[in-house]
Write a structure and sequence with these properties.
CATH topology of the largest domain: Peroxisomal Thiolase, Chain A, domain 1
Helix content: 25-40%
CATH superfamily of the largest domain: Thiolase/Chalcone synthase
Strand order of the largest sheet: 5-4-6-8-1-9-15-14-10-11
Radius of gyration: 20 Å
CATH architecture of the largest domain: 3-Layer(aba) Sandwich
Distance between the termini: 21 Å
Largest sheet: 10 strands, mixed
Number of strands: 15
Number of domains: 2
Order of helices and strands: EHEEHHEHHHEHEHEEHEHEHEHHHEEEE
Strand content: 15-25%
Number of helices: 14
Length: 411
């Protein structure tokens, strides 16, 4: 199993501008942002990415009310991934299916809501819901997926800050290669827009993106960027062994050929380009690739001053000599979907294997000279001859870094 090849055969997603991959890709290519202004109790107004999707398509309203927003996103995305992959779950032994979901945080939304609710009753804890514990345990979103689909194999959540989506894919690949599972549903989820505390914290750090037009608030690499736009979202992949995928005639979106994770061991918040570069190098090494083999880099860049610069330094260090490696950023269009960021951004770029288009980084009016990496696609999509290797970066607080490399599968 160690040498088994692992491929992506299904993708289900809910993004702030789309509820399926086709629509998502179209809007990314066109640079259409649907970031909007929302109002949060105690905090006020802020730009944010909100998902609109059929919440009762795969689960009844009563079940959604009993569960969580994260679980609702997860159930929708998992079912959509199976549907997109033309896969009847009964084709697999459900005790041999693993569910691995990446989260930046979980439980904050539920706790804030409950504290607010009991405030109406002089903080009498007798009004605290008995659903609180199962709603806030970290494995909740993954567990809600297993209950909905009747999966009895392992499920758990990967807590890896904003690298969590990539981390879930890495975990799934490893479990498949070890023979622990035969198929995996892996991805990431963010319900962060429900928490005023997250907005308040980024505001206190001077890292909350703002603009008169909320669609322009997320502007990585722009000289006047001022922080992160918080978004909710979800994305789940079907991962299978290549042999099994071929035997059922599955459409293969790509093959995961390299990955790496490491730690900065330096600061709670500030990123460190040196370690990010080491992470990318390790992923390339494991994929048996050279920097010039990479056709497209989807950056993590969130729109914070130093964060963008550190990643650009790392990219220039490794890929500065590569004339045909393109660079883009998806957060400029959808905001930062936290635990879902890595997988949503990867999903939005995978179709480039077929259409040869690099979607743009939008909202760059004045490029920061320290972010002027070669072949950065700015404001308008670019058609290229071919894209066969995609490198996806996703980094997080407390110094966690992840890189996933996907290759276009060709017979």
């Amino acid at each position: 199993m160690q040498n088994s090849r692992i491929v992506i055969t299904g993708i289900g997603l809910a993004a702030p501008n789309a509820s399926n991959l086709t629509e998502f890709r179209e809007k990314l290519i066109a640079g259409i942002s649907e970031i909007q202004e929302i109002e949060l109790r105690y905090f006020g107004k802020a730009p944010a990415g909100i998902c609109t999707f059929p919440e009762t398509l795969y689960r009844k309203k009563k079940e959604n009310k009993k569960g969580t927003r994260a679980g609702c996103l997860g159930v929708y995305c998992a079912n959509e991934a199976l549907k997109n992959g033309n896969l009847d779950i009964l084709a697999y032994d459900r005790s041999r299916i693993g569910v691995y979901i990446g989260l930046t945080e979980h439980g904050t939304v539920e706790t804030e809501n409950e504290v607010y609710n009991i405030s109406k009753y002089q903080y009498d804890v007798n009004y605290w819901t008995h659903h609180h514990n199962p709603r806030t345990v970290l494995n909740n979103p993954a567990g809600e997926i297993t209950m909905n689909l009747g999966i009895t194999g392992p499920h758990y959540v990967i807590g890896a800050a904003c690298a969590a989506g990539n981390a879930s894919l890495i975990q799934a690949v490893q479990m498949l290669k070890l023979g622990e599972v035969d198929m995996a549903l892996a991805g990431g989820i963010s319900e962060s827009v429900g928490s005023f505390g997250i907005f308040a914290s980024f505001k206190a750090q001077g890292a909350l993106g703002e603009a008169s037009d909320p669609r322009k608030a997320s502007r990585p690499f722009d000289r006047d960027r001022n922080g992160i736009v918080i978004s909710e979202g979800g994305c789940v992949y079907v991962l299978e062994h290549l042999e099994r995928a071929l035997s059922r005639g599955a459409h293969i979106y790509g093959e995961i050929v390299g990955y790496a994770m490491n730690s900065d061991a330096k600061d709670f918040v500030l990123p460190y380009g040196k370690r990010q570069a080491e992470c990318m190098r390790l992923a390339l090494h494991r994929a048996h690739l050279q920097p010039e083999d990479v056709d497209l880099i989807n950056t993590h860049a969130t729109g914070t001053k130093q964060g963008d610069i550190e990643e650009c330094k790392a990219i220039v260090e490794i890929f500065g000599h590569c004339p045909s490696t393109y660079v883009n950023n998806t957060k400029s269009i959808i905001g930062h979907a936290m635990g879902a960021a890595g997988v949503l951004e990867l999903a939005g770029n995978l179709p480039s294997f077929t259409d040869g288009i690099v979607h743009p980084t939008i909202n760059i009016e004045n490029l920061d000279p320290e972010c002027a990496v070669k072949n950065l696609v700015i404001n308008k999509a670019v058609q290229v001859d071919s894209i066969d290797i995609l490198l996806n970066n996703s980094f997080g607080m407390v110094g966690i870094n992840s890189t996933v490399i996907v290759k276009n599968y060709m017979d």
